[in-house]
Amino acid sequence: MIQSVGYAANHSFTGLKRHEFEREDPRPNEVLIDILYCGVCHSDIHQVKNDWGNTVYPCMPGHEIVGRVAQVGSDVSKHQVGDVVGVGCMIDSCRTCEPCRTGDENYCEGPNSWLATYNGPMVPSKKSPDGENHYGRDNTFGGYSINIVVPEDFVLKVPANLPVEKVAPILCAGVTTYSPMKHWGLKAGQKVGIVGFGGLGDMAAKLAKAMGAEVVLFTETEEKLSEAARLGVQAVYSKDKDQMESQANTCDFILSTIPEPTDLEPFIPVLKRDASLVIVGALDKLKPFNNMEMAMHRKSVGGSLIGSIRETQEVLDFCAEHGITPDVEMIGMDDINDAHKRVNDREVRFRYVIDMASLKTEEA
Ligand SMILES: [Zn+2]
Ligand SMILES: [Zn+2]
């Protein structure tokens, strides 16, 4: 067994505190990674608070992991000790279902679906058709820790020219916004609307711009309008009716990154005919839409969940090629409860990244 330590929550209401535990030794196809940095995603907060009713405690979040390979299993061929690597939302999938065979592991239809980087399989044994957990791991402890063991196929290569302390948010926020823009065929010269300007919105705007699209950001937070100008994109205060009307029938694609149910009806008129509004971030029952506007102009509303391993590597390489880095603020591990509160209150526009050296030097 490998000694580890991280920050975990024991209940939905206690916050996170130091938690010592053991990880299994790497299997022949797995690598052990010493974690350098881990991003703080809104999903971490949902999971700690048990907002989806499926949290396994102790809950150690973190699925935007950047680290260095410390040990490799005997069958590992893709990674070497010393490589700088990344781990995103998944650490395994069934590998045999149709989505897995065609490179869409994030839509794995196996009995336990994919194995999440924290909180275990997406479909736990008590909900799986055969009552089993085929991964043999119930509680996977995530990246708010000093190390992690991951099958090599789910480990990403971090391009050398990306600043290692800023890479982490690409692994969830980046791929979650990149995947739908690729899937829905966003092209250079088209106009894309991004709803919400937090960690996901920041990445979405930068990626869309690098793809050659015109970008308009919609935010309910007036203070964030000037920040959008800094990114060189148009910004609209979505509570202002006149500003919203000025955007009517202009967008070829809209991506909503708001992490909770919100009224998206005002954005339907912003879509052009045949265009789609796709929702990432909110995994909830949404407010109903009036289908009149959608049917009259053959518009669609859809959803998308993170991205595949292939797409995660693609977005890392795309960011390296286009010099895209997420806006981050570095924190120590013991700042995490305060950071969760600020993200939850939607005060921050950037992504917090935990410097794991702060945990290694912390006294037990
Ligand atoms: Zn995430
Ligand atoms: Zn599968």
CATH topology of the largest domain: Quinone Oxidoreductase, Chain A, domain 1
C-alpha end-to-end distance: 19 Å
Name given to the CATH architecture of the largest domain? Alpha-Beta Complex
Which compounds are bound in this model? zinc ion
Envelope shape? globular
**Structural category:** alpha/beta
**Which bin fits the share of residues in helices?**
10-25%
Average pLDDT score: 94
Radius of gyration: 20 Å
Strand content: 25-35%
For the biggest sheet, the summary is: 7 strands, mixed
How many structural units, i.e. domains? 2
- Provide the CATH top-level class of the largest domain: Alpha Beta
Low-confidence stretches: none
The H/E string reads EEEHEEEHEEEHEHEHEHEEHEHEHEH
In short:
Belongs to the zinc-containing alcohol dehydrogenase family. This protein has 364 residues and is α/β, with parallel strands linked by helices.
Observed structural traits:
364 residues, alpha/beta, Quinone Oxidoreductase, Chain A, domain 1, Rossmann fold, 2 domains, 7-stranded mixed sheet, 6-stranded parallel sheet, binds zinc ion, zinc, oxidoreductase activity, D-isomer_DH_CS1, oxidoreductase
Question: What would you say this structure looks like, in words?
Answer:
Helix 4 links the parallel strand 10 (191-195) and strand 11 (214-219). The protein has ten helices and 17 strands. Strands 3, 4, 5, 8, 9, 16 and 17 form a seven-stranded mixed beta sheet that branches. A six-stranded parallel beta sheet has the order 12-11-10-13-14-15. It is 21% helix and 26% strand. It has helices at 42-48, 98-101, 173-183, 199-210, 225-230, 241-245, 291-296, 309-322, 336-344, 357-360; strands at residues 2-9, 16-23, 30-39, 65-72, 84-87, 90-92, 115-116, 147-151, 156-157, 191-195, 214-219, 234-237, 251-256, 271-279, 300-303, 328-331, 351-355. The model has no long low-confidence stretch (mean pLDDT 94). It is globular. It has two domains: 2-170 and 327-360, Medium-chain alcohol dehydrogenases, catalytic domain (Quinone Oxidoreductase, Chain A, domain 1), CATH 3.90.180; 173-303, Rossmann fold (3-Layer(aba) Sandwich), CATH 3.40.50. Helix 3 (173-183) packs across helix 4. With 364 residues, it is α/β, with parallel strands linked by helices. Residues 93-94, 97, 99-100, 108-110 line the site of one zinc ion.
